[in-house]
UniProtKB/TrEMBL annotation:
Signal peptide: none
Protein name in the entry: Branched-chain amino acid transport
Keywords carried by this UniProt record: Membrane, Transmembrane, Transmembrane helix
Species classification: Bacteria, Pseudomonadati, Pseudomonadota, Alphaproteobacteria, Hyphomicrobiales
Pfam family, one: AzlD
Record InterPro entries: Brnchd-chn_aa_trnsp_AzlD (IPR008407)
Membrane spanning stretches: 12-34, 46-66, 72-92, 97-115
Superkingdom, natural source: Bacteria
Amino acid sequence: MTFTSIDAWWWPFLFILVAGWLATDAWRFLGVYFGGRISEDSDLLVLVRAVATALVAAVIGNLIIFPSGALGATPLGLRIGAAALGFAAYFFLGKRVLVGIIVAEAVLAAGLFYYG
């Protein structure tokens, strides 16, 4: 069974839904199962958190340096500046993620308005 094996309009959506569910939910269930048994200070959990943080940082870096779509039309300096100002707002305004996201998006939107 492949992505192109059925020629129905709904098949790609069902394939992506099932494939995405199978790829992620098994790990989520295992995480919940083992997460209650592992100490928060254990070396294994510290490693898992470090890997998860590194993966998120890699995705963000990839979106900033090699964007696609409408974001790819923006100057690199604007993308880096928006990320830097968003991080500064997060860090200096109480370490609230939502504040950092809003500031970064506002800077990016203002830059798009100015350059667009």
